[in-house]
Specification:
Elements (H helix, E strand, L loop, with lengths): L10 H14 L1 H30 L6 H37 L6 H8 L3 H29 L5 H24 L3 H6 L5 H11 L4 H26 L1 H5 L5 H49 L4
Helix pairs in contact: 1-9, 1-11, 2-3, 2-11, 3-4, 3-5, 3-11, 5-8, 6-9, 9-11
């Protein structure tokens, strides 16, 4: 695989490059982001429709609900795989643009499609790994919480250290999707190992990039929540309970809609950012004379 040398992995350069990729192919990226979002929503919408048709309510009794969930479980797995596939297509398109070997949407889909289930299994493995780490950290904290003073200090220390640790951990595996969809003959766990190997010497720089990207996104998210809460600003009623219930429903629907729109708009940027980071670490390995 040919890799074109780009500027060093700096926060500003990485984010600017990701934004340029996002801007240049915005319609294509958003198209796949919409498809990914629709696939994510499909099981929920289907559950609501079936619940209404079968039980005349969207909240069926516990026994019926269990049966419906078992019926929908394979559909949820397939929908998750399709959503991951569409997001991965964005990553491949972005990376191919970075290395000056652009692909059409159709070409990228054909390359990624055979790897769809490996993408899904990779996410399962990452989820299991994360759950294992959280459990290993949580159990000792629960035990020491019963120790006066010491337990309090350890929990306070953990509350500061754990966010940094998990951000570092995310930085080590955030590009795992890219080796899987770009490189040949990699399995799901091999892709995770590949990401871990590539980010070995760049983890804290990647942490900086991710942290600044999150800070840039937070104002957009806060503005979106503020827009969803507009009904609370202009409504008044003597029946406070009815008003509160109506506004909560309106806020929930509004917030859900805005979250979906944000996902459609922000996920392509995040996929582009991961592609830029992947190309940076590949380039770094090449310059260092390491395994490429």
């Amino acid at each position: 695989m040919t890799n074109n040398s780009i500027a060093p992995l700096t926060i500003g350069n990485t984010i600017n490059t990701a934004f340029r990729l996002y801007r240049d192919r915005f319609p294509t990226y958003v198209f796949f982001a919409v498809r990914a979002c629709l696939w994510s929503l499909f099981p929920l919408v289907l559950q609501l429709i079936l619940s209404q048709l079968l039980y005349q309510t969207i909240t069926p009794e516990q026994g019926s609900d269990i049966g419906l969930r078992l019926f929908l479980f394979p559909i949820q797995i397939f929908s998750a795989a399709k959503s991951l596939f569409n997001n991965a297509v964005i990553s491949r398109l972005a990376f191919q643009d970075i290395i000056y070997q652009p692909e059409t949407a159709g070409q990228a889909e054909k390359k990624v499609k055979p790897k769809m289930w490996r993408l899904w299994w990779m996410q399962v493995l990452i989820g299991l790994l994360g759950a294992t780490i959280i459990l290993a950290i949580t159990l000792p904290l629960v035990l020491v919480s019963f120790i006066p003073i010491l337990g309090v200090w350890l929990i306070l220390l953990a509350s500061f250290c754990l966010p940094v640790f998990f951000l570092w951990l995310y930085a080590r595996i955030c590009i795992a999707e890219l080796p899987l969809v770009i490189e040949d003959n990699l399995g799901s766990w091999q892709a995770i190992e590949r990401a871990w190997h590539l980010t070995k010497n760049s983890a804290w720089r990647i942490v900086g990039v991710i942290f600044i990207a999150i800070l840039l996104i937070i104002p957009v998210c806060l503005l979106s929540v503020a827009l969803a809460s507009i009904p609370f600003w202009f409504n008044s009623s003597e029946d406070w309970q009815t008003l509160t219930e109506n506004l909560i429903v309106m806020f929930s629907y509004g917030l859900t809609t805005i979250v979906l729109l944000l996902s459609i708009l922000l996920v392509p940027f995040w996929q582009s950012l991961n592609s830029v980071i992947y190309n940076h670490v590949l380039d770094q390995k090449k310059n260092d004379g390491g395994e490429y």
